[in-house]
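Thread: Newbie trying to understand structure tokens

Hi all, I'm a second-year student working on a class project, and my supervisor (Dr. K.) asked me to get a predicted structure for one chain before our next meeting. I've only ever worked with sequences, so writing a 3D structure as a token string is new to me. If someone could post the tokens and maybe explain what I'm looking at, I'd be very grateful. Here's the chain:
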Amino acid sequence: MIKQRVLVTVAIACIGCGGMFSIFSYVMPTLTQQAGMSEALGPMVLVIFGLGSIAGNLLGGRAADKNLMRAIPATLVWCAVIQGLFYFAANNVWTGLLFVGLVGTSMALAPALQTRLMDVAEDAQTMAASLNHAAFNGANALGAWLAGLVISAGFSWSSTGLVGTGLALCGLVIFAWGSWLEKRTFRTAEHYQ
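---
Reply by user tm_fold:
Sure, no problem. This is what the structure looks like when written as tokens:
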């Protein structure tokens, strides 16, 4: 039976990380059609996002090493803020590019969630590691799909940032709920000892 803490962590990855993918899936039309960027700068967009992702992984790993259970919600708050600000930044090419890099730092969630999965998976760490990759694929699909719905409804290209904020906040709610369940389970177990 899959443990509750594993499912909560996978849900945070699947939903909380979806915002990054909601923005990245539509970043080129956002910058070219809304901000007026030349398509020739497309490769630079990928480089900037990649550099942000590297920085996010490095910083996220350090934060997870210091205090894992604080790193996860702090990173989700960071994601919510940065992705929400992308909505405004994407009206200009240069601020849009800056925020593409900042959105890339959302990858800071990856090392923290991977570490959490390894901690709670006990004897099923190989399965948990594969679940983490599956959850990120789910986040990719969910973020792109929800952002596509918002754009299809007539909202601006940069509204993908608002979708990102919503998903990051949902991830934060799941984290808080999971923490509450874990504390309640621990108190119940202590009571019966």
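A couple of things are worth pointing out once you decode it. The chain has a mean pLDDT of 92. The chain has one domain: 4-191. Feel free to ask follow-ups in this thread.
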